[in-house]
């Protein structure tokens, strides 16, 4: 891999241990994937922030980087942590609180914005063609497919290294030739809600491996529904991008596959493992809600009350919560908790006695059985909220 004179000096340690370590991570990664150079990035997004998924070992590495003066050179955001600053924080044992806060403190010392959201694209929408180093898989697919910026699916350490160096190895999704679809997906029936878009993502993630689908017949696809599709696609497989069929696109040489209504129905059924329709928790906001979604939830919760003994959480970013303050107030008036900095999957729901989760997110339904030790029901937003309120 070719390094400039300046990059070589960093590699040799002239800019200190933190930069040298990060440069070595990037060069190793670049060599592994056949990159010929490093390219500048516009922003980085780091995953692996919740103490629940991170554990103890990486805290020392973060501390060492911060102690050695490691500082980000580009705008860098981070994924959700294990609790919000109020509601769940109070319910967490002291050891968890302390370790989670220590992780956050190290990130802040390195110069990272404590955005604590998986939707960095709402804070600043990346421009088409810009190069990024993002590590949250749902955000990676959204960036590549919806905003048309370019990012590989980074791991937490490589995104952090890229943030500190301000560059990433030039391979994979950064190259135009790797951003072409290689399978044509024909939708036989239109999808009717966000849950079905998510189910399509899970289905395609399982059958496509890392192939890029060109999807034909994706009607009514709002950005929020595409967010569900992308998050689920990345959760179930290694695909980092999808394309939608435009009339002018040549599809003659592409491999083909059909998706039928029964494929979607079967996927939803497989993600609904709960034996009861009485969940302990109704969870909306995976990936974190947009301003539009918050507005819609406010309309649906108007004049309603969450049933006694039930939990209903809506997760979003601090940024969106602040922008949608009036709607948030309405939602909270119904007993729903609008939580920032956190999501169900990376929080300790099992410590709160939550055994069954109803959600409109296929990604959460995919992960919750393993990560939350919970049974799940996957259902559209309206049904989820009705369940939280009924009786
Ligand atoms: Fe975001 Fe948590 Fe879902 S990080 S994509 S809300 S699993």
Summary keywords:
four-stranded parallel beta sheet, globular, 16 helices, binds FE3-S4 cluster, alpha/beta, 391 residues, single chain, 42% helix, five-stranded parallel beta sheet
Can you describe this structure in just a few lines?
The chain has 391 residues and is an alpha/beta fold. The chain is built from 16 helices and 14 strands.
Question: What features would you describe in this structure?
Answer:
With 391 residues, the chain is an alpha/beta fold. The protein has 16 helices and 14 strands. It has helices spanning 5-11, 17-32, 51-54, 57-67, 94-109, 120-123, 137-147, 156-165, 194-208, 223-236, 261-270, 291-301, 318-323, 325-333, 362-371, 381-389, and strands at residues 38-40, 43-46, 75-78, 132-134, 167-169, 183-187, 213-216, 243-244, 255-259, 281-289, 311-316, 337-340, 356-359, 375-378. A 5-stranded parallel sheet has the order 12-11-10-13-14, with helices on both faces. The protein has a 4-stranded parallel sheet with strand order 8-7-6-9. The chain has a 3-stranded parallel sheet with strand order 3-2-4. Helix 9 links the parallel strand 6 (183-187) and strand 7. Helix 2 (17-32) crosses helix 8 (156-165). It is globular, with a radius of gyration of 21 Å. The model has no long low-confidence stretch (mean pLDDT 96). The structure holds FE3-S4 cluster (F3S).
